Amino acid sequence: MKKRISLICGILAMSVLFAACSILAQTRPSETTATTDSNGTLSEHNWSPNPNDCPNIAPELAIRMRKAYWQFIGGSLDEFPIYCEWTSTYHTPDIVLVQRYFGNIGGMEIAFMHAGMAYPDVIREVDIAGYEFVFSSGQELYAYKNGHFYSILQAYETDLLTRQDVGTIWNLFNTRLNWHSNPNDCPNVDPELALHLRKAYWRFHGGNIFDFPIRTEWELLGEHRVTYTTSDIVVVASYIGTIAGMPIVIMDRGQVHQMAHRYFDVAGYQFMLGTLDTEIYAHRNGNFYAIEDAYNSGILTAADVGVIWNLMYRQ
Question: Rounded to 5 degrees, what are φ and ψ at 84?
Fold first, then answer.
């Protein structure tokens, strides 16, 4: 059943992919500064190292994979620049990139590729050799070799990857999110506790821990930019201590705060915070409770609130 779901999602993803490519590949008379040779073919130098490729891949390998991927999805190496009706702009080969690279495993390059298309927003659970891969979209994780791309399932079923290879990929895939000790966490929190809190806080706000890295495209002074946000955006901003078996913390997830002093009373103790939307949380069983709510529901006692107040303002 899981393989059938994988196949259906793969077909959906490829349908979206080919639709995007058919729109993108509408060529117009050249209005760019691209150099062409005597036959009018775009010069090879345009397939140069892409600053948007993930940083851990060798540029020469990335170029080979980008060229092969463009051909894999039906593109021609000499059709750039291509005109995009959606954005009214011309695209160079930089539209094709190695989004995430996991390394060479079993003689195959393992990577997420991207070529400007949108993917179905769907959680996919795919069982491969007994390892369950959870994808947050229709985007495929590929194994590349000798100019060809295979899904991990295809590579395993055709004996290009062994079960041990799949296990190695699974381990890398599940650590790709960079959920590690964050140097931006406050210095007095245990790294393992901070890691647990950061994951739980991202889920608490509706995020999926498999969302990272988050790719964002934006414009600045007419220049197109692409940035990747890692899980380091989630931070334990302040660790006050563990009270009544619950970590008491102030968390942050990169949001813009409304700067103003906020005063509030809990169990007769007056608290003050420097922003309107920051909360002091008690964390328990994956949930975060503002201390007002924790006190009103009986999770914290008045004595607990007093300890928190003293730790925050008497040090």
Answer: -105, 120
Q: Are residues 34 and 91 in the same domain?
A: yes
**Residues contacting residue 52 through CB under 8 Å, at least 6 positions apart:** 94, 97, 226
Tokens of 77: 């190496």
- CA 30 to chain centroid, in Å, comes to 35
Q: What is the pLDDT of residues 85-141, one digit of tens each?
A: 766 777 788 889 998 899 999 999 999 998 877 777 676 778 999 888 877 678 899
List Cα–Cα distances, 150 to 137, 147, 158, 200, 261, in angstroms. 17, 10, 10, 34, 55
Structure tokens at 260: 């103003």
The Cα 259–Cα 176 span in angstroms is 34
Is the alpha carbon torsion for 298, 303, 306, 310 positive or negative?
A: negative
> Residue 293 and residue 278: Cα distance in Å, rounded?
14
Residues 206 and 135 in one domain: no
What pLDDT, in 10s, does the model give residues 250-264?
A: 999 887 778 888 999
Residue 186 lies in a domain: no
Total count of domains within the chain: 2
What is the pTM (predicted TM-score) of this model? 0.48
